[in-house]
């Protein structure tokens, strides 16, 4: 529940913990025993100018099964039930309105069971629970996929990408939207050497530059690093009976490829990227295309 929020602009802090119960400073073991009345929860500090409360609610609904009255997916018991805790009357009303809108949307056949309760004392969880998805990425990803959460979300909140089918080629859509892989040595940029930058074919956000491109011999474009560390996000991928690190674009959420620890650069990384996920912009056209900020990388002034 932490990662969907902490990735968003306007989120200041996300803390895992316990709330809604009757015992002071409960431990994880006590909460799981279902004797303290607490719920496992996250406390979110946010900038309402950048992240309106209504948007927080929209993100929340897309992470849960709001019709489950006995827990969430594989996690059963009162402590795992879904609750929105409000801090003032305005939040309560927005939460009630959001819940009603979801119920009337027809997205779910069963009634919405998520409770809306006044916030009580929040107790931060033990340190090993904070950022658990980052500290124990492999175990967390296995648990998440095995729990059925991802399949449920995909079924009930499918991407509305019909417009992309019209704009992208079949291969571009397959790679970026369906996590596909194009054939090696039979793609546009595997042996491309022109100076310039590579942007997301979907969103246009800058991803890599020719300055960091190298021939890895794998048959796909390879880079030692993204143009900016914030340009991409990484995710554990355990598909096809392998454990890999997937690379996706930050804004467009396009599947790009994978990163491996066998690169030639100082960081030892190789970003193996599908050409179909990229659009190349030559150095000479950066200003015309609105990417003039990157001219300095090639020794050119704006």
Automatic annotation (TrEMBL):
Claim: Translocase is one of the keywords in the record: no
NCBIfam families: msrA (TIGR00401), peptide-methionine (R)-S-oxide reductase MsrB (TIGR00357)
HAMAP family linked to this entry: MsrA (MF_01401), MsrB (MF_01400)
Active site, UniProt feature: 272 (nucleophile)
Role played: Has an important function as a repair enzyme for proteins that have been inactivated by oxidation. Catalyzes the reversible oxidation-reduction of methionine sulfoxide in proteins to methionine.
A biological process from GO: protein repair
Gene Ontology MF term list: L-methionine:thioredoxin-disulfide S-oxidoreductase activity; peptide-methionine (R)-S-oxide reductase activity; peptide-methionine (S)-S-oxide reductase activity
Name of the molecule in the record: Multifunctional fusion protein
Any one annotated GO CC term: cytoplasm
Annotated source species: Bacillus clarus
């Amino acid at each position: 529940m932490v990662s969907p929020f902490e990735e968003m602009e306007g989120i200041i802090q996300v803390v895992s913990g316990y709330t809604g119960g009757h015992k002071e400073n409960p431990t994880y073991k006590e909460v799981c025993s279902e004797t303290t009345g607490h719920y496992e929860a996250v406390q979110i500090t946010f900038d309402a100018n950048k992240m309106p409360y209504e948007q927080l609610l929209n993100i929340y609904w897309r992470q849960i099964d709001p019709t489950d009255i006995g827990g969430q997916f594989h996690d059963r018991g009162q402590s795992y039930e879904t609750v929105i805790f409000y801090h003032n009357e305005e939040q309560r009303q927005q939460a009630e309105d959001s819940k009603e809108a979801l119920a009337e949307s027809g997205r779910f056949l069963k009634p919405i069971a998520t409770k809306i309760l006044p916030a009580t004392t929040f107790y931060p969880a033990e340190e090993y629970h904070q950022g658990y998805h980052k500290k124990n990425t492999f175990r967390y990803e296995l648990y998440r996929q095995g729990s059925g959460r991802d399949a449920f979300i995909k079924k009930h909140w499918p991407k509305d990408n019909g417009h992309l089918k019209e704009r992208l080629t079949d291969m571009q859509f397959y790679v970026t939207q369906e996590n596909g892989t194009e054939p090696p040595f039979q793609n546009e940029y595997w042996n491309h050497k022109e100076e310039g930058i590579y942007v997301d074919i979907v969103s246009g956000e800058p991803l890599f530059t020719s300055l960091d491109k190298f021939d890895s011999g794998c048959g796909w474009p390879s880079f030692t690093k993204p143009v900016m560390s914030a340009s991409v996000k990484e995710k554990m991928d355990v598909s096809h009976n392998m454990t890999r690190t997937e690379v996706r674009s930050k804004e467009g959420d396009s599947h790009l490829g994978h990163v491996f620890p066998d690169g030639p650069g100082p960081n030892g990384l190789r970003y193996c990227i599908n050409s179909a996920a990229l659009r190349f912009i030559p150095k000479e056209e950066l200003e015309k295309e609105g990417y003039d900020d990157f001219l300095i990388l090639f020794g050119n002034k704006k």
